Amino acid sequence: MGKGSSSVSSDVSSSTDHTPTKAQKNVATSEDSDLSMRTLSTPSPALICPPALPGFQNGRGSSTSSSSITGETVAMVHSPPPTRLTHPLIRLASRPQKEQASIDRLPDHSMVQIFSFLPTNQLCRCARVCRRWYNLAWDPRLWRTIRLTGETINVDRALKVLTRRLCQDTPNVCLMLETVIVSGCRRLTDRGLYTIAQCCPELRRLEVSGCYNISNEAVFDVVSLCPNLEHLDVSGCSKVTCISLTREASIKLSPLHGKQISIRYLDMTDCFVLEDEGLHTIAAHCTQLTHLYLRRCVRLTDEGLRYLVIYCTSIKELSVSDCRFVSDFGLREIAKLESRLRYLSIAHCGRITDVGIRYVAKYCSKLRYLNARGCEGITDHGVEYLAKNCTKLKSLDIGKCPLVSDTGLESLALNCFNLKRLSLKSCESITGQGLQIVAANCFDLQMLNVQDCEVSVEALRFVKRHCKRCVIEHTNPAFF
């Protein structure tokens, strides 16, 4: 085949289940020769494709090669698609040229706009269609984000090939890439993160949730070599116990900036081995945090929250749901965030009572969202104090709080007129009378959850009449 024909990079293994013909051997020989003639100035694009058997398809040599045994998805390298067919065997099989397709009449800027809505793997497929699409698919504006998903994809190799292609104009540095999302890619390892850390100094957002094979060392490299990183999601990464700079990075930086990491959003949900000492290190290094999620970090205690509030005074959103060792003393520390705190989730923290709620209500007057589901120590007194001090509350979840009754709902309705979402699921002491008081005062209510509550159909209809936009979640078969 000619110089523009497709070929597979030598670092991707290919397996076949049939004996090649003589013509196919000649084509393969020509492809190998063509591959050896390429220079580093004209690298091939990376393709993230599902497995496919090699051979001839529709009269053309297949440009896809992958393992047919393992069935895994891999990153593959191809040259730009040819402008015309040059091999005599293929020319005979080719069909007469049809008139230009409608999409080919679109100007380049429109095509780039269309490509901008495609995920990474589909964008790579588009690069195989023709030479024009190849050039448009690798427009730098389309490569500010890499998004890969799937449990079988070989993410380490995909990231290596993609970054190599994106670094062709600036060797070893990919300046346009700002976001990498590889959530749920269980085959991601430290090697893939090392590639990102070394090649993407302008990275601002990294999401690796559910990638349980990565460790602290790789995360340290990313935060050390990507100084502009602001958004980090390592939820479900059970081996990650801390966020910190590498020792080498700390030595190189001045004492004033040596412990500063620019991360503002950090999600460490389901990082089960995170302990108070690890949270202390995170707080000391990530002092600019505004959003922190520690759901199901079951080893954390009130002491860890004390460290957090000392260093991270700008936190707006905090979740410690299912952290069973957090108690009223921990809420006393959280209350020191004062009016900066807008979102707080303490769901299923069984040691929290009205005392902790009073601390938060007294000092965090601008609280907008509170999730206290399953905190069975909360009573009407806590809800009343919360309603009178946090009058701008918009969302409240007090489901599975059996000690909350209509009295608490009355206080809520008479003070929090901006309430939009209210969950009372499994609140055994709630009746239809309490719901009617809420509906009569909170006209902007948009969601009400009264599943497993003993409320009448008449009360539900009353809510629907007064709050016309409200979606009611219930378990009463008579109401529909």
Characterise this structure.
- 33% of the residues lie in helices and 11% in strands.
- It contains 17 helices and 17 strands.
- Strands 5-6-7-8-9-10-11-12-13-14-15-16-17 form a 13-stranded parallel sheet, with no helix packed on it. Strands 1-4 form a two-stranded antiparallel sheet.
- Helix 10 links the parallel strand 9 and strand 10.
- The termini are far apart.
- Pfam families: DUF7885 (PF25372), F-box-like (PF12937).
- This is F-box and leucine-rich repeat protein 7.
- InterPro entries: F-box-like_dom_sf, F-box_dom, F-box_LRR-repeat, FBXL15_LRR, Leu-rich_rpt_Cys-con_subtyp, LRR_dom_sf.
Number of helical runs? 17
- Rg: 29 Å
Low-confidence stretches: 1-47, 49-77, 254-258
CA-based shape? globular
Structural class: alpha/beta
> What do the pLDDT scores average to?
81
Beta content comes to 5-15%
Q: Largest beta sheet, briefly?
A: 13 strands, parallel
Intertermini distance: 68 Å
Please provide the count of β strands: 17
Tell me the strand order in the biggest sheet: 5-6-7-8-9-10-11-12-13-14-15-16-17
Q: Helix amount, in percent?
A: 25-40%
Please write out the topology.
Blueprint: H1 22-37, E1 46-49, E2 56-57, E3 60-61, E4 74-77, H2 88-93, H3 108-115, H4 120-126, H5 131-137, E5 145-147, H6 155-166, E6 179-181, H7 190-199, E7 205-207, H8 216-225, E8 231-233, H9 247-252, E9 265-267, H10 276-285, E10 291-293, H11 302-311, E11 317-319, H12 328-334, E12 343-345, H13 354-363, E13 369-371, H14 380-389, E14 395-397, H15 406-415, E15 421-423, H16 432-441, E16 447-449, H17 457-466, E17 471-473
Helix pairs in contact: 6-7, 7-8, 10-11, 11-12, 12-13, 13-14, 14-15, 15-16, 16-17
Domain F-box: 100-146
Biased composition (Polar residues): 16-40
InterPro entries: F-box-like_dom_sf, F-box_dom, F-box_LRR-repeat, FBXL15_LRR, Leu-rich_rpt_Cys-con_subtyp, LRR_dom_sf
